[in-house]
Amino acid sequence: MTGIKIDGKEIAQSVKDRVKKAVEELRAQNIAPCLATVLVGNNPASATYVKNKHKACEEVGIITKDHKLSSTITQTELNEIIDNLNRDKSVHGILVQLPLPDQLNEFTTTSRISPLKDVDGLTPYNAGLLAMKKAALVACTPSGVMEMFDYHNIKLQGKNIVLINRSNLVGKPLYHLLLERNATVITCHSKTKNLEAWCRLADIIITAVGDRSKFTLTPDMITEGAIVIDVAISRFEEKLVGDADYDKIIQKASYATPVPGGVGPMTVAMLVKNTITAASLSSQLG
Q1: What is the rounded average pLDDT of the residues 203-225?
Q2: What is the CATH number of domain 29-124+266-285?
Q3: Which one is catalytic: 16, 117, 118, 120?
Q4: What residue spans in the chain does CATH classification 3.40.50.10860 cover?
Q5: Known catalytic residue: 17?
Q6: Most exposed among 46, 92, 130, 206, judged by the fewest C-beta atoms under 10 Å?
Q7: What is the rounded CA–CA span in Å between residue 233 and residue 237?
């Protein structure tokens, strides 16, 4: 059997088309949705990510404000910039590109962002709301994965899902989102014993290790007809790869995401969606 490709580019475009209409509706109410990005230092990968986010915003009509800061900036100086953006009523979303230089604390920085402008869904407040099933702004990659399930009308209730990641960016938010859909979620990580055995029990595997030198999801680790969502992306042997070899996995899976072109485009699409949600929230609060 050959499974169905879950095309992240196609699904991301469907999200952006909806966002574009929402932008037009907000502009009719004299609200101009705006995302402020903060990039510290000269990390080439981070600069590329921010550039792609600006491009996506431009496509849907969201204004961007770009803050490029010195790699030597202090925590106090960065806090002040975030405080100013929190107070700026013309800014609806704030995104601080991670990772940060060593002298800056990621938790301190992300916690400083107003929860109403937290388009990455990383503040303790929004993480807590997610655990209580009340979150309006959810981490972009996990919400993008959920959008993929919805696009293909994949029902999660009662499914056994193995989630190979426990990070604040991916694993923990996804755990709560999947539980909300009444799935049975097993979270695996670097200390999990018999990972292959857990994978073979799964109806759905979501993997986000991101280091092919340490872990590869192989066809013998999945059951016939399982669904594989590959969130990972890294460079291995001069190629961009995920945790799985898509060409082999798709021969056994019922659905699978490629890398690149799978979950990656969804992350940016959900960012613009979150920015619109944040703009709508601000309009309701006045």
Answers
A1: 96
A2: 3.40.50.10860
A3: 120
A4: 29-124+266-285
A5: no
A6: 46
A7: 13
